[in-house]
Amino acid sequence: MKPVRRVVTGHRDGKAVVLFDSAASNQRLRHASGLVSTLVWVTDETPADVSGKTDRAAREIGVPPPPKGTIFRVVDFPPESGTRSREAVLKEMGIADHGGARHPGMHRTRSVDYAVVLEGEIDMLLDASEVHLAAGDVLVQQGTNHAWVIRAQRRETPMSSVAPTAPAVSTTPGYHPTLLLVGRILLAAIFLIAGSRKVMTYAATVGYFTKLGLPMPEVMAVIAPIIEIGGSLLLIAGWKSRYAAWLLALFVLIATFMAHRFWQFPDPQQYANQMNHFLKNFAIIGGLLFVAACGPGSLSVEKS
């Protein structure tokens, strides 16, 4: 297979620059199938981190993309010849056997695959049908079982960009996972501190909840710190963070209308104080909604 020239852009000192312009070096022969795969680029998160300057193709990876990422590769398929071990082919791909295969290379991934045929001709086998593709044809494959076959004595090269089926968020040059981590920690801190104080002053918390007119104040004084402390730890770790953000946002919304009804205070000073708390809580809800919508970022357990 001839070398694949790869040009990768990025940012340096706030300006758009070319980071790499050379032959893609991660080119591998898969002995079980005879194909040659050139890895062009890989992302591991959504939204993609576009602030890095390292070669993200300098790695070993199978056919499936990362759970929240993408793969861009160029593949050179050989003509069919002899028998092939399905077990060996799937092992090289890093894919489990789903059974019932009509061809040793039949496989599927939980992804949407975008393929462009660059040269020659190729057949794509499906469960009970097949389609013939030629140079210039494009394919959108939505997680279906398939195999690639060349029956004529010609070689061809399809170029594939593989994206996960999970929803994607647009990338921007200003995306910095460290800022998302700091933001999660700052959001979580207020809940972690408030929940810890409720645990240490249980009797006072019960009295305060009673004054607010909450039902079962003794029970609520236990549930509230569990939500606050548990939700804050999930936010910091970045695990199940979208669920945690929704739960905390609902918690804050209820607490705001129970504890900070500023319109009920005739005294101007109390009115202003309670309104500030009311607006502050809505600002916190806004931050939580950002986490719920966009995820915790790549510096998290979820890496999304």
Describe the fold and architecture:
- Helix 2 runs antiparallel to helix 4 (217-237), helix 3 (202-212) packs across helix 4 (217-237) and helix 4 packs antiparallel against helix 5.
- Mean pLDDT is 88; it is low at 165-174.
- With 304 residues, this protein is of the alpha+beta class.
- It is elongated, with a radius of gyration of 27 Å.
- The longest helix has 27 residues, at 268-294.
- A hairpin with a 2-residue loop joins strand 1 and strand 2.
- 25% of the residues are buried.
- A six-stranded antiparallel β-sheet has the order 3-4-5-11-6-9, with no helix packed on it. It has a three-stranded antiparallel β-sheet with strand order 8-7-10, with no helix packed on it.
- The protein is 36% helix and 22% strand.
- It is built from six helices and eleven strands.
- It folds into two domains: 5-164, Jelly Rolls (Sandwich); 177-294, no CATH class.
Give a concise summary:
This protein has 2 domains: 5-164, Sandwich (Jelly Rolls); 177-294, no CATH class. The chain has 6 helices and 11 strands.
Characteristic terms for this protein:
six-stranded antiparallel β-sheet, three-stranded antiparallel β-sheet, alpha+beta, 11 strands, Jelly Rolls, 304 residues, 6 helices, 36% helix
Calculate the terminal CA-CA distance, rounded to whole Å.
35 Å
- Write out the CATH superfamily name of the largest domain: Jelly Rolls
Please report the first level of CATH classification, the CATH class of the largest domain.
Mainly Beta
Q: Largest sheet, order of strands side by side? A: 3-4-5-11-6-9
Annotation field: number of helices: 6
> Which class do the helix and strand fractions yield?
alpha+beta
Using the alpha-carbon principal axes, give the shape. elongated
Mean pLDDT: 88
Question: How many individual domains?
Answer: 2
Specify the helix fraction band.
Answer: 25-40%
β-strand number: 11
Taking pLDDT < 50 over at least 5 consecutive residues as the criterion, the unreliable ranges are 165-174
